[in-house]
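With this grant's support, we have paired protein sequences with backbone structure tokens. One protein thus recorded is set out beneath this paragraph:

_____
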Amino acid sequence: MTPERETVRERTLAGATAATRQRAPRLDQPSQPRHRILPEWDPEAFGRLSEKIARFLGTGRFIVWMTVVIVMWVLWNVAAPAALRFDQYPFIFLTLMLSLQASYAAPLILLAQNRQDDRDRVNLEQDRKQNERSIADTEYLTREIAALRTGLGEVATRDWLRSELQDVVKELEARRRSDGHVVIPAVPPVPPVPAERTEQSPGRDADDR
């Protein structure tokens, strides 16, 4: 094989590799929607519809309307002319319709109950977190109040100052002379520092250094 053919082949393989890489799905772009055979539906919309149906099935209005329909069905198929009756006794078609209604009503009610259980679980989790935050805030406020009480115990209050001033006034009145002068005790004088000690102190400091 000639070198020119080898170069062309290498270029062809390189081009094929680049094309293959470009065809591969990129992670920085959304993927194309896939075509499905079965129809798609919104689970939330179906869940909301099931909840509405379940709420309606659990009301007295539904029971009244169902009773009216059954009574009219039975009366029509009993009292109407034979040519107009569409469900003869023993009313097999009515039994089939009621069974079909029950078969659809039970899953719808279960689906509504599951959605309600999920909401209750979320609400309980939020309540638990809120209770934990409330307990933490209460403990923090309790510690702060205890610290304030401890700090207030060391602060001079107005009553304490008043009692101290009263004691000082009583002591001054007890020391007052008959002529009205107050005797103040003499403060003992501070002994002077010897000169020798003052002169030797720098040298001692120098020796210590």
Observations:
- The two ends are 96 Å apart (CA to CA).
- Residues 197-209 have pLDDT under 50 and may be disordered.
